């Protein structure tokens, strides 16, 4: 089973966490290089004038499958994500997708994203030297690709919050 690790500057203020690598990410060995990634980076540039090199990029679950992350996979890879947070020491964590936000902010289990996308929530990590970051959940770029009328403007608004 191939692990697709996060990549980017360390330390880094901006930490982007998706759900799991897609097939293109699996082939390339890094997150957000497929169609959703292209849409995301293009929009981040347009809205924030930032590029991929400004972000540490990772996923909640590190292995490829076409299925959504399971509870077991999320638990299995949680120590890897935690280790990344400790190394990268981000100040802003941008989560993309249903499972990524709920793994960090479990209060949103079962809550529709429309209630929290584009808002910032405090998140503390690191037991010995606790640090607090703002988690900003954004709508998934693949939703913006699939239903542009519904989600493209929302993605832009969510990124403004970042
Ligand atoms: N979607 C994700 O959640 N992660 C990726 O790396 C690519 C697409």
* Strand order in the sheet with the most strands: 2-1-3-5-4
Model regions low in confidence, pLDDT < 50 over at least 5 residues: none
Which compounds are bound in this model?
uracil
What is the helical fraction, as a range of percent? 40-55%
Structural class: alpha/beta
Mean pLDDT: 96
Number of strands: 5
Principal-axis shape: globular
Q: What's the end-to-end separation, in Å?
A: 34 Å
Strand content: 15-25%
Please provide the ordered H/E string of secondary-structure elements: EHHEHEHEEHH
Number of H/I helices: 6
Main pleated sheet: 5 strands, mixed
Describe the structure.
This protein has 162 residues and is an alpha/beta fold. It is built from 6 helices and 5 strands, in the order βααβαβαββαα. A 5-stranded mixed sheet has the order 2-1-3-5-4. α2 (35-48) crosses α6 (148-161). The longest helix has 18 residues, at 71-88. The radius of gyration is 14 Å and the shape is globular. The protein starts with 13 loop residues before the first strand and ends with a helix. 36% of the residues are buried. Uracil is lined by residues 18-22, 25, 31-32, 34, 36-37, 59, 96-97. Residues 18-22, 25, 31-32, 34, 36-37, 59, 96-97 line the site of uracil.
Descriptors:
162 residues; alpha/beta; five-stranded mixed beta sheet; 5 strands; binds uracil
